[in-house]
Design goal:
The chain is of the alpha+beta class and 414 residues long. It has nine helices and 19 strands. It folds into three domains: 2-77, OB fold (Dihydrolipoamide Acetyltransferase, E2P) (Beta Barrel), CATH 2.40.50.100; 120-155, Dihydrolipoamide Transferase, CATH 4.10.320; 211-412, Chloramphenicol Acetyltransferase (2-Layer Sandwich). The chain is 28% helix and 24% strand. The longest helix is centred in the middle third of the chain and has 18 residues, at 220-237. The chain is globular, with a radius of gyration of 27 Å. Mean pLDDT is 83; it is low at 84-104 and 108-115.
Length: 414
């Protein structure tokens, strides 16, 4: 018998919730095939089968909480094993013997199908959304449909207008009763990740003396620089030149000048961080996660862009490691990708500052006594007033603005 146990989940994470079993007792499993999904405070983890065989026992059910090392189930090795994770082919034995001359049969129409079976994450999305993976073009190995392919297909389906059937007879409209409303509601248990997000955000509001200051930045210089060099940048470094790298560099420069924004409170002590680990907020279908790009003061713009691109992809695929979301000293969140024009971001405790980026919008601005149309972005800095004074917060945001409006400052370190 091979035991399936809860793996080590990372620093400070001691338990998880059973999200979903991908197999039933008696099902054949392949070695390393994802067999059960665990939800922790920060990430979702798929536990692979330690051996090939038959799932003989499921020790804990969906929704139950388990500790690190706990027994999840057992696999009877060898019996009914599917070594490659692919279904075994069956031989058709129903054809009659000595049935006379063979009559040619019309060949069936070929049906497009992925040569690789859909992974559990794709099957789960299909069950939740109703989108058939067989209708989705796969970008994975040998045409396999990936989680990203499914999410894109679900978004496209959601964007299509839903036809409303028209009846010949007029329907009398009446106000729904409370009983009708209850029947149309759906109660869903919060995931551990969502519970943790809710708790941490509320704790930040209750603990910190949170305040937000605003400014706006003319993005003309950064947009011009990006348009001029983006092709050369991608050709040389293998990654697209985005805006986030410029913001990370601008924030690092401002944090060096205003160290209180890069500090935190521990009891009656102030801890000033002489390193710059930037948290980059990423929205996923399960909630907000904040992977951390470490030592941004020592990284080039290309290295920062590569790290952000990699984190963004793996965050959407649910493949981030817990240690990759710990240890940040400052956070940047971009509501502009969703169309937000202005917001007041909540601190990512125990950090004392978070920068909110927003939508770039052309607006009339007075430049040298003349009205010109410029691409403008509102910036918001939420900060802990217990450690950061108003003068420091405003100065920090002004320094970020100055660096973005004159990117040469970042190169010259002035």
């Amino acid at each position: 018998m091979a035991e399936i146990r809860v793996p080590t989940l990372g620093e400070s994470v001691t338990e998880a919730t059973i999200g979903k079993w991908f197999k039933k007792a008696g099902d054949a499993v392949a070695v390393d095939e994802p067999i059960v999904e665990l939800e922790t405070d920060k990430v979702t983890i798929e536990v692979p089968a330690p051996a090939a065989g038959v799932l003989s026992e499921i020790a804990v059910k969906d929704g139950e909480t388990v500790a690190v090392g706990a027994l999840l189930g057992q696999i009877k090795e060898g019996a009914g094993a599917v070594p490659t994770g692919k279904p075994t082919q069956k031989t058709d034995t129903t054809a009659p013997i000595n049935a006379g001359p063979e009559v040619p049969q019309p060949r069936p129409e070929p049906k497009p199908a992925a040569s690789m079976p859909a992974p559990p994450s794709v099957r789960k999305l299909a069950a939740e959304s109703g989108v058939d993976p067989g209708t989705v073009a796969g970008s994975g190995v040998r045409g396999q449909v990936t989680k990203g392919d499914m999410m894109a297909a679900i978004e496209r389906a959601a964007a299509q207008p839903t036809p409303v059937p028209q009846t010949a007879a007029a329907v009398q409209v009446r106000a729904p009763s409370p009983a009708d409303d209850a029947a149309r509601e759906e109660r869903v248990k919060m995931t551990r990740l969502r519970q943790t997000i809710a708790r941490r955000l509320k704790d930040a509001q209750n603990t910190a003396a949170m305040l937000t200051t605003f400014n706006e930045v003319d993005m003309s210089a950064v947009m011009h620089l990006r348009a001029q060099y983006k092709d050369q940048f991608e050709k040389r470094h293998g990654v697209k030149l985005g805006f986030m790298g410029f913001f990370v560099k601008a924030c690092v420069a401002a944090l060096k000048e205003i160290p209180a924004v890069n500090a935190e409170i521990d009891g009656t002590d102030l801890i000033y961080k002489n390193y710059y680990h930037m948290g980059i907020a990423v929205g996923t279908e399960k909630g907000l996660v904040v992977p951390v790009v470490r030592d941004c003061d020592l990284k080039s713009l290309a290295e920062i862009e590569k790290a952000i691109t990699d984190f963004g992809r793996r965050a959407r695929d649910g493949a981030l490691k817990i240690e990759e979301m710990q240890g940040g000293t400052f956070t940047i969140t971009n509501g502009g990708v969703y169309g937000s024009l202005m917001s007041t971001p909540i601190l990512n405790a125990p950090q004392s500052g978070i920068l909110g980026m927003h939508k770039i919008q052309e607006r009339p601005m007075v430049v040298a006594g003349k009205i010109e149309v410029r691409p403008m972005m509102y910036l918001a800095l939420s900060y802990d007033h217990r450690i950061v004074d108003g003068r420091e917060a405003v100065t920090f945001l002004v320094r970020v603005k100055e660096s973005l409006e004159d990117p040469a400052r970042l190169v010259l370190d002035v």
